[in-house]
Amino acid sequence: MVSRRLLLGALLGATAPALAFAEGEGGSPSVLTKKGRRTARALTHQAADKAALDKALATVKPMEPAPPPAPAHEAMAVSPDEALGRLKQGNAIFARGGANISLPSMVRVAELSKGQKPFAVIIGCSDSRTAPELIFDCNLGELFVVRVAGSTVSREGLGSIVYAVEHLGAPLVVVLGHTKCGAVGAAVDVATKHAELHGALHEMVLPILPAVLEAEEQHPADLQDAAIRQNVRDIAHRLKVADGTLSERLEEGRLKIVSACYDLSTGVVAFDA
């Protein structure tokens, strides 16, 4: 509620202190002195002004309270560039050691139970050192994460990505690799040293082998590192034509698909866009 003293001060100027006293704030002047009689006469005139002010205040519409924040599942949509900017900013915070690692409150958890609106899809490696929520300084409900060793995308993974884009409205897909990736290193050994992997491990590296061979043609000083970066670039390129929903949204400017690489030593993510 607005203080009556402030309103009176604005309208009556210098007479406000006396009128504040008339409302019971301050000591009582002596009516037996000349000064007290002058004060009494002034208060008589001010009482009439106060009555007029009260009448005017009665017609003033009270200020309406600010609307409550929208629930998490009704958050405003962001553009692909805005989403990318948020990831870059979050990683910059993480890389300088200022990441927010506080757990979400139960109020936040309750809001998220009503729905989700992630602003980005992260296709990452299962490596325990590359949790996207941490390296991008994000929290529950902000990222839709698909993780498998080597950051590859299976048919099931593609379905997860399409779901996040089509049904959850995610405007950005990031294919995230990382330095010293063991899955890519294993693929390099298979391609260059004819290493033998059994069963599921062999199947894990098969999608990475084309990137290894492509990187090898460039004769890099560090084949594993070059293959890591080539792998995520290839996956991002294939995703752009892998599904009609993704292709359509890319053409309309409602979606962006980019590749990136996280440096385990520095904490910095280098984006290809």
TrEMBL record:
Pfam families: Pro_CA. The keyword Disulfide bond does not apply. GO terms for molecular function: carbonate dehydratase activity; zinc ion binding. InterPro entries: Carbonic_anhydrase (IPR001765), Carbonic_anhydrase_sf (IPR036874). Binds 1 zinc ion per subunit. Belongs to the beta-class carbonic anhydrase family. This is Carbonic anhydrase.
